[in-house]
Structure formats: C-alpha cells, structure tokens
Amino acid sequence: MTRRFPLFQNLPTWRTHVAAVSALAVGLIAALAPSAAAAPGDLDTGFGNSGKVTTDFGATPSEPEIGNDLLRTSNGSLFVAGRRGFGTPGVGPGTFGVAKYTSSGALDTTFSGDGKVATGFGDTLSMARSVIEAGNGKILVGGFTGGEQIADLALAKYNADGTLDTSFGGDGKVTTDLTGGLGDGIRGLSLTSGGKILAAGAAGNDSFIARYNADGTLDTGFGGGDGVVTTDFGTGDHLFALEELSSGKLIAAGTANSDFLLVRYNSDGTLDTGFSGDGIVTTDFNGLSDLAFGFTQAPGGDYVLAGAVDAPEPFGITGPIKVGVVRHNADGSLDTGFSGDGKVTTDVNALSADEARAVAVDGDGKIVVAGLAGETVVFPVDPVDGDALVVRYNSDGSLDTGFSGDGIATVDFSGGADVARGLALTGSDDIVIAGGATSSSTGLDFALAKLQG
Length: 453
Prior knowledge:
mainly beta
C-alpha cells in the first residue's frame, strides 16, 4: 500500500522525498531543543526533582523537621542541619537532624548509610542551628538541648561516615550550661586558624562567645579563664555569628535593643575599643524593631547583615515587616556607597511579612539573601504560610533585575508553608537554599532548592 502525505501530494517524487526528510529533521531538532534557556533566578532542573528536594526522616506519625543551616563543603557536598521532631508524643524527643547530599541533590548514602543522622542529648528537645566543616571530612554541629527556656549549649562532631567522633567529648557530644538553666543556645560556629572552635549565641537574656579546644573542652586561655565571655548588650540581645579575622581579632553579629548589632573583640575576648570607640555598632532602620539573622564578610573587608526590619512593637503583630540588609565598612561605619546610607529594605508582600534568614556575597560582589515571603504569623517556630524567598542585590544596593526579572524569586515546594534558613553559593555562583517545606503527606520536612545564579 502506498502511504500518501497530503502536504507533499502535488510535488514531484524527488521533491517529495527531500521535503519529507527536511520536515522530519526540523521536527526532530524542535523536539530536542529546550523550550527556553535557563535564566538567573530559575530553578536548576538538574538538581533534585526539577530543582527541589525534600527529605523526610521517616518517623510515624510524621514529626516536624526543618533545616536551620546549610553547609557547602570544599568538594561540593551539601549538609543541612536542623531539628528532627519537636518532642512529639508517640514519636520521641526532638533531636539534631543532619542530612548530607551530593552536589546534584541526592542523599549521600556514604553518610550513615542513607544520608541522614539523628542525634539526641537525652529525653528532651534538642535543635541544631549551625553546621561547619571541622577538617578531614568531619563536620561540627551546634545548637541547644533541654528545651527553649531551660536549654544548654550542645555540640556534636561527626566523622565523614556519619558516626559520632568519640575524640570529641568522649562520645562525640558536648553540652555546656552557662546560666544555670535560664536558656542557652549556640547560633553560630566557626574555626580559628589554629583549629579551635568559636561559638556564639544567647546565654539567658545576654549574649555569649566561647572558645573550645578541638577535643570539646573549653579553652581556659580565653575570656576570664573559663573559655566564655558573656555580655549584656541591652534588651533581647543575642549573637548569631562569630568569626576570626586575619588580624586575630573576632567579629560577631546579632541583635540588641531591636537593632542590628556588630561587635569586634580582641583575640582574648575583650571588647576592641579601637572599633567604633567601644567595640559595638548598632543599626536602626526606621525606628521600629529590627532583627538580624544573617551575616557574611564581603570582599575588601566589608560586613553585610540581613534580617527582618520595621516590625511593629511588640513582635508578633502582623505588619509591614520587610527584608532588611545593611553594609558596614571594615571600621564599622555604614557604607554609604550601598544605597546612599548603607541600608536597604525590600517589601515583597505589602500586606504580609517578609524576612531574610541568610546572606552571601557572590563573585561579582552581588548580595544574595534567602528567607521567607508572605507570612501572616511573625517569626513562628515553624512556617505556617508563605514561600521560600531569594533576593539578589547589586553591589550598590539596588535590586538586580537580571535575576528573575525584578531581583526577587520565590520557591513553592508543594503548596504548603515553606521557608529558607540556609544559603550557599556554588563555584559558579548558583544559589542553593535550605530550610523547610510542608506537604499534606509528611508534614514539615527538610528542603533544598537550587537556582541559577
């Protein structure tokens, strides 16, 4: 039987063959060609499931899980540390939750067999807030144990295979009580050039910095001889980041008196009075409450903080809360080359709250923040609505319109409440975020997404 192609029916035979082959070739090329080139701010479809990953730790009934920090290691692996469980009846106490992923977003089964580890500190709530590399493929995770109000500092150190490193504290875990049960917690960790561990956070109603030896003991050569410095910076103060500078001095960031806080210490833990006269710099945006969450150093020695600003008093009232970013020169002064006064606010959703939780500076000097957009409950323990948020600014503080068209991208994982609390940039300045995503089947789970940079 002769099959006829109506489109080519009136052409001579040889022309019919050529036309048919040409049409097939064009159709094949069209089928193989991508529908559109990926642009900055788009999800990286080669990562996880079309750019997104969620991880359930598998308890029944499902316990709430959320990632609070993200580490991208020097070899491209991704670690997310946070909370597994919330002291749920029938499930058990809340524990540190740590998950390791490959650079493509798959769980790395060389870590604990399935890529996931849960570490408890007794029959109580424990939560991880920070994760850093600790050398030789090991990682160090810090947070608190004992519950939010009666907590102690908590640290856990893991070998490359996910087992606890027993050279640290004897069993891989260390706890420290600073205030006799008033509520202590680590928010930030880093290593010194000599391999000692720096920790910062809250000690009851005050802020603390501490230095530990590599084996988990407190370094008695720091502070007042006990390895700890506690400072009252005012109302509601706490630190969330602490890093050693090339000079040996320490820079810390946090919040005090409802303003952003930047502090510089000498190497022994005393305040550096050569920094702003007393070692302390606070930044107010518009006379309302400002709460910083993210900190990074920019090329040239500048410091960048990001968080939530313009919150009405008291916290908890839904209002015009916005993303806030501030940039300081190395001496602590505001960088007026950044938006004219060193400060930028971004209102993503005028009728609901937006906040930044993490910040990084890419290779072009652009500032990237990650957090949450569109929440109606201010600063909830777990997200109740809204989507994960990524905003990118040019080095002068203007929104980068080459990123997602207006500088702002949101990520909805599966229709529920989502948040980003950790941020890392790849070598090509692609953007990885981590936090939590809510689904109808497993509730709140660890979540990651990767966006084109």
